[in-house]
Amino acid sequence: MRLVLLGAPGSGKGTQAARLKEHLQVPHISTGDLLRAEVAAGSPLGLAAKEVMARGELVSDEILLGMLEDRFSRPDTAGGFILDGYPRNLAQADALGRLLARIGQPMDYAVQLEVPTELLVERIAGRARAEGRADDNPESVRKRLQVYTEQTAPVIEYYRQQGQLTVVDGVGTLDEVFTRILEAIAPVREVG
Questions:
Q1: Residues facing residue 81 across a β-bridge
Q2: Residue 114 DSSP class
Q3: Would you say 24 and 182 are in contact if contact means Cβ atoms under 8 Å apart?
Q4: Are 65 and 59 in contact (CB under 8 A)?
Q5: What is the pLDDT of residue 169?
Q6: Among 19, 71, 123, 144, which one carries the catalytic annotation?
Q7: Among residues 127, 129, 160, 189, which one is catalytic?
């Protein structure tokens, strides 16, 4: 089972990815975690990324894709993976699709967790209060969500056109959302 999890900040992607990892027995690959691990390990790609980040720039798609290709070559991904935090734009979605086709591990589904904006604002603001963060006020959260929507709308459409998109209602208890995800991906699980 190879999945991409899509959803705005506060949609529950990370929580559901952890549950799916246990249920499906496949690794959860977060590009942020992968980037930090490569930098800490001092790998060639990690060193290149560290240099870019030291200049205050974003790590290139080429470096991230190289890290993903290396990660996908490890034995624990033979049965699939859950990708979280990537792709964030159309160029990344296209590059990921080409990479997965080249290595013979095509994507099964892109699962989009859909949560109304006001609930996302409420969730993130609540999390910010709990963590003592002042930067996540409702206005800044709405702006971040707008940027996310603008960047990812083409990614969602990309997966829709590929016939790989499944939209899941992300409102409800953790168990309710988890059950919806499992039901949405069940046809692929039964075949593969």
A1: 2
A2: E
A3: no
A4: no
A5: 97
A6: 144
A7: 127
